Amino acid sequence: MAEPIVSISERLARERRARLAAERLLEQKKRELFAANTQLSRHARALSDQIVVQRQEAESLKGRTVQVLHDLERVTSQAELAERRLWEAIETIEDGFAVFDGEARLVSANQAYLGLFGAGGVRLGDTYFRVLEVLSKRVADLQGEDAQDWRHEMTERLARDVIEPKVVCLADGRHIRFHDRRGEVGDLVSIARDITAAMEREAELEEARAKAEAASRAKSAFLANMSHEIRTPMNGVVGMAELLCETALTEEQRLFAETIRSSGEALLVIINDVLDYSKIEAEKLRLYPEPFDLERCLHEVILLLQPLAREKGLRLVVDFDIFLPTRFVADPGRMRQILTNLIGNAVKFTPAGHVLARVVGLELAGGDYELHVTVEDTGIGIAPDQIDHIFGEFNQVEDQSNRKFEGTGLGLAITRQLIGLMGGTIWVESEVGRGSCFGFSLVLPPGEHTATGTGPDRPVLLKRALVVDEIVINRVILQRQLETYGLAVTSCRNAPEALAALAAQGPFDVILIDQAMPENDGPNPAASLRAAGAAAPILLLSSEPDSVGGSRGDVAAVLPKPILRSQLLRVLQDLSYPMTELPAPAEPSAPETVFAGRQMRVLAAEDNRTNQLVFRKMVGDCDVELRFASNGREAVDLWRSFRPDLVFMDISMPEMDGREAARAIRAAEVSGGLPRVPIVALTAHAMDADRVSILEAGIDHCLTKPLKKAEIVAKIAAFCPLGARPPGPGAPPDAVPG
Ligand code: ADP
Fold this sequence. Notes:
Elements: H1 8-92, E1 96-100, E2 106-109, H2 111-115, H3 128-139, H4 147-159, E3 166-169, E4 175-182, E5 188-194, H5 196-245, H6 251-281, E6 290-293, H7 294-312, E7 315-320, E8 327-330, H8 332-348, E9 354-363, E10 369-377, H9 411-421, E11 425-431, E12 435-444, E13 464-468, H10 472-484, E14 488-492, H11 495-505, E15 510-514, H12 525-531, E16 538-542, E17 557-560, H13 565-576, E18 600-605, H14 609-618, E19 624-629, H15 632-642, E20 646-650, H16 658-672, E21 679-683, H17 688-696, E22 701-704, H18 709-718
Parallel strand pairs: 7-9, 13-14, 13-15, 15-16, 16-17, 18-19, 18-20, 20-21, 21-22
Antiparallel strand pairs: 1-2, 1-5, 3-4, 4-5, 6-8, 9-10, 10-12, 11-12
Adenosine-5'-diphosphate (ADP) binds near residues 379, 382 and 402.
């Protein structure tokens, strides 16, 4: 069959189309290939970039790892070094050091620790219990304690929250103190310290302390004895001198006798100072607080110092705060000692002018009072660099102007200590050549109020007072006192001024005149006021009430200076009620009536012959029957046969001492149903312990030697029984030596 006839051109055209199509396809595939290639190469590039980055990272990671490894190595070696150093240090210390782990196994220990247990004793890896076993069996001296009990106790100890140190005594005599402490991870750190040397030192110190205490006791006892030994003969010296002064003597002899007496008394003051100081030092001094009248105590001190002040022409002035009570609770004896010392010093170191003792105070919230007591003088003063020095022991201001004054230099040291014991403080302000002011403050409870019968039920009815006193301080104090009692006060310096006031201001209800007015005011200002028409009662203020004598006719009363507030009040009250008699000025009232009845019987037990003589002379003026016993046994016998109304009992006597004798008398009184005889101890011991033991023996009162005539006579008068004649001055007693 014949092929369809296709034109060549068509075939050509078909071929061309086919070729074109193929070419187009090729072109497209080429493009696709190119695109794929491009993408591939992009991928390849990215991949190679990634490879580069990762390789770098790997490199740096590797570098860092090496660094860390390096650091680790370094730190490890440093830690090893530190540990090595630590252990070297631990090895060098003398204390044993060990660490146990949580299972109580010894993980490390220094040689000092291991050495405690001896060779082959304890090794690393051993348990704490093994350590205890070796200690208890081989090393420690358990001093009789059972080893098992000891281990049990030691194990128990470890279980406590706070492990107490434990001292273990070793058989070789050493003492080891174990300090154990549990760490946070359960480890136990143990330190073993050898305290043998410290214990030996402690024992030595303890021994030294015991020795020192024994020495101090011996010193106190020695001082007490010395005081006794010195006081006994001094009793003879001072007592006899006192008696001698009462006899007829030439002026020269009187001077000698007075000197013996005053020197003896001065010596006793020194003995007391030394004794007090040694007691304070040995902490033996005790206070005996009781209610007392501080104002009265101050006045008594002033009265005691008055003669000395008068001799020097000094004025002694007291200013006791009028808004304060006068009664407080404190040790009155010690308070008097403090005041005597400060005021005594002020008088001693003041050649001219005045000494002013002032008490001010305020009530505290609890009812106690804070008191400030100051003693101001116009004396020689104290240099600033000496101020601290004077409160020390045996310290006095060392200079020419001062050394003419006597003294032990203990007074202020004692005063400061006493004030300290009372809970107070002392201070001083001073200026050389101008004067000093010593002050102290104390907090004291008020004393109970005593019914005096002069209380507010008897108001003062006087309205106007005239005060005549040359000294401004006195005028001010007196004015303040009078004003509190409701009086209007006119103050004058002298008699002419007083006369002028009288003329100008009309009548007064009371006139108070100081006795020591200047000479040019005339010999008797009271008389001149009377002559000028003053009708008011006149009160004379005197520091020497006894010497007022003849001028008394014009005056209603003589008030001793410094004036006690209570006394002034009583006089003002009495003047307000003229029906009441004014109290007689303080004078011993001599009994006018002659009493019938027997003589009072007095027994004195005293072994020393001289003191017997002194005693007999002292009671010589009393109307009593006096007998002596030479020891305690004789005293008890005489008490039975003589039946005394009063017994004076020396404390230290041979055979039977005063305490024993008093006890025997008290026992016999009880068993025989007899009345209790008053017993007064005569003691040369000034130690407080004696006072206590004396009172415990049944003795009622105590007099310290050297005896004073006035004290003895006062005791005899106080104990005179109803049936006997008053013993006041009379015929000498017919003493019968025992
Ligand atoms: P004493 O008076 O026995 O010497 P004190 O201890 O009482 O001892 O006083 C110590 C010293 O303090 C005195 O020696 C004196 O130098 C000085 N002194 C004390 N009080 C005064 C005073 N009021 N004025 C001046 N000096 C004083």
